[in-house]
Amino acid sequence: RVVAKAKEIYTPTLNWALNHRRHVVAIALCCFGLSMVAASRLGSEFLPELNEGTIWVNVRLPASVSNEEASKVLRQVRDALQRIPEVKTTVSKAGQPEDGTDPKTISMAEVFVDLKPQETWRTGVTREQLIDEMNDAVSALPGMEPTFSQPIRDNVLESISQIDGQIVIKIAGDDLAVLKQTAEAIERDVKPVRGVSRAAIDRQGDLPQLLIHINREQAARYGLNVGDVQDVIETALAGKASTTLWEGERKFDVTVRLPQERRSISELAAIPVPTFDGGSVRLDLVSTIEQSSGAMNIARESGRRTVAIGIFIKGRDMGSIVNDMKARIDKSVVIPANYSVKWSGEFENQERAMARLSVVVPISLLLIFVLLFDAFKSIKSAALILINVPLAMIGGFVALWIFNIPLSVSAAIGFIALSGQAVLNGVVMLTVFQQLRNAGCQVLDAVKQGALQRLRTVLMTAMLAALGLLPMAMSRDIGSETQRPLAIVVIGGLISATLLTLLVLPVLYASWFGKDKPSVKPLSKA
């Protein structure tokens, strides 16, 4: 009954299409043009953000913060987060681990937030609302500007560019002062861009330093050389092994150094430096001690000094934000000669993936064309089937536009799968046309009979793929974010691909391969 009803609807529609070929082709081209307009408004991103079920909070403390003060501040951050009902537990860490695998300073702190099961959350509360509440709670503490990520996502971002941020701008040059000035100008320009939630220069700030200048002439008067004075300074500040402690077969060096509280300028000035005659002289008599500040971090990439700006985004696609930032930087910031600006982070991965797809997809289509030509022994037949591919994309672009989903690698893979389905339906339809023509049918008769014969097949293959991907398109569970664009593209594309296979393909075949008049005798509904 379903097939009979489908044929009842399809028969007059196909008759109209064959009698109005130019109108059908014009409508198809208009739909394709409108879908391209929709595609231009989609925006782009590398991959949709995966919901891992937990939240990772990054907190930046002053560069010169002490261990004790960092612990105190992180305790306050944990307490602020724990007041949110949906938070199950929090764990904070600052600095680098003992194995040195995560080279961070004590001022770079992170808080792991484990959430309760979603069914126990307050009614109507979403993950985005929770992050907003956490941001308000932490930002209420003096000097706190937190950023929010997720454990796996944070590690992936750091592995891409070694900098915290979804988008990373790297300025490379030789002069630290010029680099800092240029980075600050770029930071000021990108902050007002819509969708930028936070932008900050990586590891910005100065650390307090002790500068000890040895007076060589004064040291020589006491019979000392530079190495003698440096040994004393090294022992006082860094420590030096003075003896060895044995415990069974194990031995340990016993290191001597000044305690932390005695490393002020006055304490260091009074340190005795032994002389060769058995006496000693104060350190300040053979050197000048002063307190200064130095760069917290001097990074290099490809042999050049580099300053990076980490940018977090929210509520807007990455491609549009980057385009706006580039426009503002080109207009307002003058990049000095011999200095370069590089865009990294997820945006770099996105550009790399799209560049590879721009090479792989044409090669794949060329191989498909070669296989089709080998199967049908006709360039026109192979080209006719491949026309289905761009026309099938109409539904995919429109579906992304309707659901407000940016174009990503996941969606691009959906278009590749959709292309395969469109080619398959084209082969199914064109094969029966060729078989009927070989059996002696005229072109229009072959088109009419073949289209009706393959109606059931085309509908079944389209519904099979669409219904199979429907759960992926409707799912909202953890991990569904990366699958949804693919499923929506394929389902939306199958709608347009099926219509094009059933209407446009027969019209094009009749126009390309037949010499019959456009007007045809109506099909029987039987």
Count of individual beta strands: 15
- Helix count, DSSP H or I runs of 4 or more residues: 16
| Helical fraction | 40-55%
Beta-strand percentage range: 15-25%
Major sheet? 5 strands, antiparallel
Uncertain segments: 516-522
For the termini, the CA-CA separation is 13 Å
**Shape from CA axes?**
elongated
Q: How confident is the prediction overall: mean pLDDT?
A: 82
Structure description:
The chain has 526 residues and is an alpha+beta fold. The chain contains 16 helices and 15 strands. Strands 5, 6, 13, 14 and 15 form a five-stranded antiparallel beta sheet that branches. A hairpin with a 2-residue loop joins strand 13 (299-301) and strand 14. Helix 1 (2-19) packs across helix 16 (484-513) and helix 14 packs antiparallel against helix 16 (484-513). The protein is elongated, with a radius of gyration of 35 Å. Mean pLDDT is 82; it is low at 516-522.
List the helices and strands and how they pair.
Layout: H1 2-19, H2 21-40, E1 54-60, H3 67-82, E2 87-94, E3 108-115, H4 127-139, E4 147-149, H5 151-161, E5 167-173, H6 176-190, E6 196-201, E7 206-214, H7 216-221, H8 226-237, E8 240-247, E9 250-256, H9 265-269, E10 272-274, E11 280-282, E12 287-295, E13 299-301, E14 304-313, H10 318-332, E15 340-345, H11 346-376, H12 379-402, H13 409-438, H14 443-453, H15 455-474, H16 484-513
Antiparallel strand pairs: 1-3, 1-4, 2-3, 5-14, 5-15, 6-14, 7-12, 8-9, 10-11, 13-14
